[in-house]
Amino acid sequence: MNYFKKILRFAKPYKIYAFLNIVANIFYALFATLAMVSLFPMLAVLFNQTERVETAPTFNGIGGAKDYVSEYLNFFVTQKAGENEGEALVFMVILVITMFFLKNLFGYLAMYFITFLRNGVLKDLRNELYDKTIDLPISYYSEKRKGDTIARITSDVLEIQHSFLSILELIVREPLTLLFTILAMLSISSKLTIFVFIFLPVSGYLISLIGKSLKRKSDKVQKEQGYFLSILEETLGGLRVIKAFNAESKFSRTFRKSTSRFYKFSNSLLNRQNLASPTSEFFGIAAIGVILWYGGKMVLIDKTLQPELFITYMGLAYQILTPAKAISKASYGVKKGNAAAERVIEILETENPISEIDNAVDKLSFDNGIVLENISFKYEDDYVLKEFNLEVNKGKTIALVGQSGSGKSTVANLVTRFYDVNKGEILIDGTNIKEITKKSLRGLMGLVTQDSILFNDSVKNNIALGKENASMDEIIEASKVANAHDFIMELPHGYDTNIGDSGNKLSGGQKQRLSIARAVLKNPPIMILDEATSALDTESERLVQDALEKMMQNRTSIVIAHRLSTIQNADTIVVMSKGKIVEEGTHEQLMKSAKSYKKLVEMQSFTS
Fold first, then answer.
1. Average pLDDT over residues 322-336
2. Which terminal CB of the chain, N or C, has fewer other CB atoms within 10 Å?
3. Phi, psi (5° rounding) for residue 606?
């Protein structure tokens, strides 16, 4: 229940529906009991067993309420029966039908109100989970499976939603139904009712034994579901590679093993859960059997109980089974939902290591430059950058080159604050980026990566991602700067063409030019290009490089380059190796020095 207490805060905006549900459940429980009790006067008319009462009884306070109700019913029924037995019977039938109608009406209203609460909690919980998902740092997802996160937002939240209904039934509807029913049974025969209480604790104990392992089994099911969703997500993302390497059977075997485990865990969980209802019903029927034996003895032998009262009592006793079964099923639902709530709360309570200080400033302009001062950084155990220093003045283009693993892309990740430095500090205009709000920091920057990350949407919406309410003229102008306008106009619907999942309907060069157009439209003062041309053919590279050069005009740029031919015009070229700067200068200066940079240029010239 600990996790559900944390989930309950999502129900606060919908407390009016919870209140209305409780009110409707109170009336449901009341009329469910009165519906059975109303059978008594009708049976009395049928059996003609009611002792005739000539005068109406008087009410003598709460203590005599039971006798008053019994005597008044007798008076009312005998008066009606005395006038016309047929009319009395019709009246009693209408009374019974009315009671059952009101019971079902309030039952429906209770479910009607709870629907708004459950779906509201579902909506808000998913929204907060999604917000948390995009707020958590990139490092979080390098350790987690995407499918597991998807499973938590989908199936785990649904499990919590269903469990909320169970909790409200546990708290209000079924206990009240039990209470009113037992009070009615006690008013008919306290001696007979004792037999019911003998069997309830026994059945409750045995049912609790069945449910002890439910949370553990449910957790296994949900984790396995997250695992096979991850396999599915990876399969869809890497379908070309899977087909190219004939690896379909390998992935199929992995998926089948996961679904087999899911099958086994689900069977175990559901069979244990399904045992709740028949177990509670069996013990309920056993109690009914004892009541039949003992009550029959009171009617037939001892003559201490009227037959019509005994039949009404039996109806009430059987009515106890429904809420008792519902409570046992609801308790199972709570145990199962608790495992789902634990997994959801784990995400919601995950601390974001890249946090903002309380008085973080909104930086809206870039005036002087960026300084990386004596920074060291590691992803896991080994440092990728060690006591690294770099200064990027406003309006200058700095190119970072070096072999793979030298730490080039790490610099871009740290400047954009996708990760935080372990030592040292990064300053923009003299202000540590940890003292700047993440939103305003990234608002100063445009990013073009090696992998063109596009979305399953129109060309127009992909370009306008970084600038809300951008006009069509602005989008077209940005596309022209990125050398993208001509090919966009050749698409079936121009700027309204859907480019497919990850932009798969476009070529690599086209996707990259859309990424550049997106960065141009944002119009940031600082541009970060992370190997933006490394995956392109020569013709596409020429178009993209031309677009990049137009985009970098009058901007401060950090260019991470794989193809050295693309950065020869940079103001400063920084050569990196194993997280340190080994050489820096202009292209001409570095070629004259004939050290690391010249070797890299010659290697590329030779291989190309």
1. 69
2. C
3. -70, -45
